[in-house]
Write a structure and sequence with these properties.
The chain is an alpha+beta fold and 631 residues long. Among the domains are: 84 residues, Calcium-transporting ATPase, cytoplasmic transduction domain A, CATH 2.70.150; 119 residues, HAD superfamily/HAD-like (Rossmann fold); 118 residues, Calcium-transporting ATPase, cytoplasmic domain N (3-Layer(aba) Sandwich), CATH 3.40.1110.10. It has a seven-stranded mixed sheet, with helices on both faces. Strands 2-1-3-9-4-7 form a six-stranded antiparallel sheet, with no helix packed on it. It is elongated. The two termini are 36 Å apart.
Length: 631
Amino acid sequence: MPVHEECPRCRSGVCETHREVAIFAIASLLFPAGVYVEYFTPYPLAGTLLLLAAAVIAGHDVLKDGLLALIRFRFNIAVLITIAAAGAFLTENPAEGAAVLYLFAIAEFLEEYAAGRAHRSIASLLDIAPQTARVRRGDEEVVVPVSEVTVGETVIVRPGDTIPLDGLVTLGESSVDQAPITGESVPVAKVAGDGVYAGTRNLDGYLEVRVTKSEEASTIARVVALVTEAQAHTSPTEAFIERFARYYTPAVILAAVLLAIIPPLAFEVPFIEAFYRALILLVISCPCALAISTPVSMVSGITTAAHNGVLIKGRDALEAVGLARVIVFDKTGTLTTGRLEVDEVVAFGVPVTEVLAVAASLEARSGHPIAEAVMRRAGEEAVSLHDVEEFASITGRGVRGRIGGVTYLLGNESLFPDTGAWRVEYDRLEGEGKTVILAGTDSAVIGLLALSDLIKEDAEETVATLKARGIRTMMLTGDGERVGEAVARRIGIDECHAGLLPEDKVTMVERLMERYGLVVMVGDSVNDAPALARANVGVAMGAIGSDIAIEAADIVVMEDEISRVAYLVALSEKTISVVRQNVATAVVVKLGIAALAVVGFVTLWMAVAFGDMGLSLAAIVNALRIGRPGS
């Protein structure tokens, strides 16, 4: 048997997958040999023994589970199969008895392989982080295991290297491929002061990185841990199917007993024939495909999302997003960038550059966000600053200073009590939801600067996509009503509620839940933590590297891209659709074959091949389709 270097069990000498393959290989030789000897030679007893050996080898786990369940008086799928196989041998149908166990074991193996594939997909995230790191210790660079690197040490990352641990760039600049964590298709530029994450790949530059998190606390390790935890949770649909199966199996056994007893007594059907039909009913009633249809689909959806930079912390959250008809957005940092920008300068009697020069010169001594925005705009326009004398801050109103012997003022309208020609432009800009500051002297306003929190490039398209899916969009913000309404109009939000404190947002979410049922809240997970926690599903934006965000929300969008919300909704709806397809197909096919079994048109092996193994395989293939784009 070949040894797979990437398989830990192979390295230890015990690989479950290879063991199962070997078992099926042996059974695959014994089964056709037994059929041939049973039906085409004068030695039927030898054929029966070969078929019995094939049945026991292929179905040993099922037989063991079935017998233990019978002893404990717990009726499960293994009990149904064990009874059906034993009955087939007792009624002198050894080929069908062997086929029941052989085909069912293959179906079980395929189910486990599909689940293992999903788990391996997530574990591969952790595997992409290197096992060693190049660390600067003293005057030397040494290569040590990642587990031995401590927080605060500096690691060296050369072009083409994978970054071993989370940290901050202290020297160098490069492009980094963050796709394994964020799903971004375009590399991200990194310079001194930027954060980098374990498992991402340095493309073309030299970087020195100060480690900020240990191996077990890294972002990628947390993603793996939380997705693994999410796979253990059940969705409402899964919970219903599990409760249903608890009563279903005993009911099926009772129905099979009645089918074996009533026809011989009431309709003079031979007992052996009635008993055989009852066995077929047992097999076709196995709820394997029904039981796996939801979990395999949910796990496929969760792992697909993780590889696209969306961390879903529970199957219930994945299901709820696709069923919700209302999505609520925070404004600042969610729909907008959270950073003020000067997007318009209006001048009165002087050049626009002079207005910007005066404003930037006065703001050069301030650390206020408005000052930072004005300075950025002045830098972009290459405006030269003036020397400022007698600078003073006027609390709550603005600043004052002398430039070239003239006193200039910069701030809100309270600094300029006389209304002039500027009022019309001021009202226009404010009506657009912008923050307006005035620049001027003691006697006249020379210009206006309009600032706004820039709307994210993909916000409008995302909202349009959600509305096309029949989802109502709302925005909750602490900003004033005029600003909030202006942003909502530009993006296309259906409803805006402004001037809200954190507790007001919680109250609003509760009202929406009463009105619409399921509500999804999208925010930055820090300012909006109470509302995110209260909503049916809380989605945190741009949480890469943020422990608070990863812990607080039900779903974490690792990169700050609002378009991922539309992707999440599409993924959830696709997952729910696949679940419904699998469940509906399983129910219809099983009911059809069961009806045919009652009147004797179906054999045992057909029941297993089409009604159990075939359906299970179809459910698995359909579920794995979730991870393929455009399918």
